[in-house]
Amino acid sequence: MNQPSSLPPSPRQTFLGLPKLPARSAAWVMPLLLSLLMTFIVSLISTVRVAGFSLDLPRLWLSSWALSWVVAFPTLLLVLPVVRRATAALVEQLG
Fold it and tell me: How many other C-beta atoms are found inside a 10 Å radius of the C-beta of residue 76?
């Protein structure tokens, strides 16, 4: 017998007030976040090293960061499967 559940439907999970993406999105969300953070930090270090701390630093840095990210994100999407296979070859698997 199919009886309706007395439990209310579970609310959709949110993050910062926005609904979370489906689990299948992890394949591109993780490289997106990784590329954003890594290029943000590395471009800052490179820009400070070349230009020093000046009033132009924010403009130079953001320009450098944008260019770095445009290259890094697609590169990460392309090389991630290879890196996963190489990691699996080097690291003992659980279970």
Answer: 19
